[in-house]
């Protein structure tokens, strides 16, 4: 007898199967995997806060961060880790320095050992890869920029971009850095002469001033544009960062980034705006009659015409690299200058030492040039100390397969977090004065400043270490030299010491500073 099954039944069975499969997938992701992983780590002596279905530990993190952000620290305290990462602080005190926690359904293991950090960061590129990030963040820099590309694509991008940021190229850019800083100083002078009541002392919110200045410098030095042209890129990136901050407070459910919610609409709109602003800068260079200059954009556009595939970038990749460098060149140097200014305003003795060094190596009025920077040893030490105490808050990587790390077995898909703020203030590594501002610890170089040669990871280490390190240091030295030649800095009474994690460590209420002219302000 022939069995005829109606088509509707077949469809119904198929739909049921799909639902069952989905439910089983969901069960695996939401319940089974976290359970298995928790057990695997427990067997190795690693525990942590309890996993909650779907949310992991996100709610606890949010609550602890909200509470800690109400506190104000004593300005002389550099013990900022508990304010910035109260959840890590609490979990370390309960579960030890290595612990497991859950960012939604994503397992994260927090490790503070500099030796293990070195092993991960210097390992083969395809072992520990850049950790997954929320899709919102990709709109900030794009998927095809240096920060997120992997494997052979990363090798190709880095090979093309390295020459644009070589020390010789950066020395040529010094003039741009000086000109942009002079422009800022001119603006200060003009504003002061408008305000007849305030002749002597200038009051400035330095975080804002530095943010504008570093934006001007990267736009001019790397893209041959200017703050005026780059401003749309920076403003849009700033707005996108705020959207990312909002979305970070919610759990991430894959697929929800495509839903037409008001926040997603805003992100899509800003993404389009950002791409268009960058495109404008690229197109205007493409249309310029002259040969492309040897700045970052020029080098990328030349690569576009290369016959060799391994030396070629396409236009989409160039646009994402532009987004990457606009962001990378702005925030991190702003913070280095901001926190160094805060520390020098607080430690007048060090401010005076740096001024003496500047007067000796560069003079009282001469603008710094490419020969000046290697002579500013004390300033270098101050920047290192500032990066140690207020530099990048953490680094992360994801295990691309089951891997061994020290005595630990790390299952595929686990994210490893290195809490730099904690590692950079660990007394066992840096000595009893680890939470004190003491640039002298760097007097024999970075690798001899602590008990482990790779203890300072502010620029990371290994193949994916910061490509902009030389650019950042020369830029910061130019700016600080020119300010200290003209002013003595002190903290305004309005300053509230409240470092907060906004992708980088930033002053929650800005950095109001009093600038006392040293002579006639020229
Ligand atoms: C004080 C200033 C800076 C600090 C502290 C800093 C820190 C870092 C760190 C820690 C990394 C590694 C991230 C990781 O491994 O996950 C990194 C990578 C990177 N940085 Fe910087 N950075 C600074 C300035 C700059 C500047 C000025 C630029 C651009 C001109 C830049 C562009 C980049 C890029 C493109 C990468 C990705 C490199 C790669 O994956 O190959 N950074 N930076």
UniProtKB/TrEMBL annotation:
Gene Ontology cellular-component annotations: membrane
Keywords of the record: Heme, Iron, Membrane, Metal-binding, Monooxygenase, Oxidoreductase, Transmembrane, Transmembrane helix
Membrane topology, as annotated: Single-pass membrane protein
Any GO molecular function: heme binding
Cofactors demanded by this protein: heme
Domain of life: Eukaryota
Compartments it resides in: Membrane
Residue numbers binding heme: 466
InterPro entries, sorted: Cyt_P450, Cyt_P450_CS, Cyt_P450_E_grp-I, Cyt_P450_sf, Cytochrome_P450_Monooxygen
The UniProt record lists the keyword Transmembrane helix: yes
Alphabetical list of PROSITE patterns matching this protein: CYTOCHROME_P450
Homology family: Belongs to the cytochrome P450 family.
Name of the protein in its database record: Cytochrome P450
């Amino acid at each position: 007898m022939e069995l005829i099954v109606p088509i509707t039944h077949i469809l119904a069975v198929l739909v049921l199967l799909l639902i069952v499969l989905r439910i089983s997938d969901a069960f695996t992701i939401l319940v089974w995997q976290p359970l298995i992983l928790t057990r695997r780590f427990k067997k190795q002596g690693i525990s942590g806060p309890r996993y909650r279905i779907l949310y992991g530990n996100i709610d606890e993190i949010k609550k602890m961060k909200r509470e800690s952000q109400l506190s104000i620290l004593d300005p002389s305290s550099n013990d900022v880790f508990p304010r910035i990462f109260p959840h890590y602080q609490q979990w370390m005190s309960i579960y030890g320095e290595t612990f497991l926690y859950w960012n939604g359904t994503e397992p994260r293991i927090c490790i503070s050992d500099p030796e293990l950090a070195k092993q991960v960061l210097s390992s083969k590129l395809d072992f520990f890869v850049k950790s997954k990030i929320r899709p919102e963040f990709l709109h900030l820099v794009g998927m095809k920029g240096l920060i997120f590309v992997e494997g052979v694509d990363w090798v190709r991008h880095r090979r093309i971009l390295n020459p644009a940021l070589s020390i010789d190229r950066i020395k040529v850019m010094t003039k741009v850095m000086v000109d942009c800083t002079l422009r800022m100083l001119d603006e200060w002078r003009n504003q002061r002469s408008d305000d007849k009541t305030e002749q002597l002392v200038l009051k400035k919110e330095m975080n804002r001033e530095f943010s504008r200045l570093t934006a001007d410098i990267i736009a001019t030095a790397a893209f041959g544009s200017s703050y005026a042209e780059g401003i749309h890129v920076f403003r849009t990136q700033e707005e996108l960062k705020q959207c990312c901050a909002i979305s970070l407070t919610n759990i991430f459910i894959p697929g929800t980034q495509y839903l037409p919610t008001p926040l997603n609409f805003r992100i899509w709109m800003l993404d389009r705006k950002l791409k268009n602003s960058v495109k404008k800068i690229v197109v205007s260079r493409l249309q310029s009659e002259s040969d492309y200059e040897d700045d970052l954009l020029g080098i990328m556009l030349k690569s576009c015409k290369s016959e060799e595939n391994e030396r070629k970038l396409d236009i989409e990749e160039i646009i994402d690299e532009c987004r990457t460098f606009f962001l990378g060149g702005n925030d991190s140097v702003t913070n280095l200058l901001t926190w160094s200014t805060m520390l020098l305003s607080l430690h007048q003795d060090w401010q005076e030492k740096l001024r003496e060094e500047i007067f000796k190596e560069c003079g009282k009025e001469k603008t710094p040039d490419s020969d000046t920077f290697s002579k500013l040893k004390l300033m270098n030490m101050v920047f290192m100390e500032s990066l140690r105490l207020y530099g990048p808050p953490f680094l992360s990587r994801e295990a691309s397969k089951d891997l061994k790390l020290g005595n630990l077995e790390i299952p595929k898909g686990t994210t490893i977090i290195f809490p730099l703020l904690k590692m950079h203030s660990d007394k066992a590594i840096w000595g009893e004065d680890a939470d004190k501002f003491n640039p002298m610890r760097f007097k024999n170089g970075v690798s001899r400043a602590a008990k482990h040669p790779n203890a300072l990871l502010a620029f990371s280490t290994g193949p994916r270490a910061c490509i902009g390190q030389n650019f950042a240091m020369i830029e910061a030295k130019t700016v600080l030299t020119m300010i200290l030649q003209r002013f003595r800095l002190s903290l305004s009474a309005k300053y509230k010491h409240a470092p907060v994690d906004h992708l980088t460590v930033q002053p929650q209420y800005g950095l109001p500073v009093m600038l006392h002219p040293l002579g006639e302000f020229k």
